[in-house]
Amino acid sequence: MTSSSTWINQISELKNNNKIKSRTCKTYVKHPEKEICQCGRLKPSHSYTTLHHLDLNERTDINVKWNEGRDSSSVPINVYGIRSSNGPKFIRCDNRIKLLSLYNLILNDCKKQEPSLLISAYGGAKYFTLSERLEKDFLTGIIDLATRAGMYDFTLKVDV
């Protein structure tokens, strides 16, 4: 079994056993200054299959702040995979997941080899700007480093 099929199989098993979930915004709350939801996503990026269009339209009052507990919900995981044929694996999971499940997923995928380097990236994009080319080069460099160094890179996709 290849590493990629092992990764997909592990996530499928955790998904089927309800040990791993994703989180999604269920109510569009317009950002006061931008044409996006306060969760950070564009309106078309919200799931229309599980939401009522009325919910998306009713909560456009800019005085109402988005609240994760009220305005998001846990859903079956559907964003995971491998970036390229031998590239880094990714998973978008609920921030309320039991960390042991996530740790075991990663450790099993790495054949029980613990990482030589951990990097955690959290926000910060609003404090600096890069040209699109430089941003792409930077992210590609981080991914190349991660692949070569046996590194785990954890991001929260906040302000990225």
Can you walk through the features of this model?
- This protein has helices at residues 3-16, 53-58, 68-71, 99-109, 132-149, and strands at residues 21-25, 72-76, 80-82, 89-91, 117-121, 151-155.
- With 160 residues, it is α+β, with helices and mostly antiparallel strands.
- The protein folds into two domains: 3-113, no CATH class; 115-160, no CATH class.
- The radius of gyration is 18 Å and the shape is globular.
- It has a two-stranded antiparallel ribbon. A two-stranded antiparallel sheet has the order 3-4. The chain has a two-stranded parallel ribbon with strand order 5-6.
- Helices cover 33% and strands 16% of the residues.
- One of its GO terms (molecular function) is ligand-gated calcium channel activity.
- This is TRPM SLOG domain-containing protein.
- Pfam families: LSDAT_euk (PF18139).
- Residues 89-151 form the TRPM SLOG domain.
Q: What percent of residues adopt helix (DSSP H or I)?
A: 25-40%
Round the mean pLDDT to the nearest integer and report it.
74
Arrangement of strands in the largest sheet: 1-2
Give the uncertain stretches in residue-range form. 50-58
Note the overall shape. Answer: globular
Distance between the termini: 34 Å
Please provide the ordered H/E string of secondary-structure elements.
HEHHEEEHEHE
- Tally of domains: 2
The number of E-state strands comes to 6
Q: How many individual helices? A: 5
Give the biggest sheet: 2 strands, antiparallel
Strand content: 15-25%
| Radius of gyration computed on alpha carbons | 18 Å
Instruction: Indicate the structural class.
Output: alpha+beta
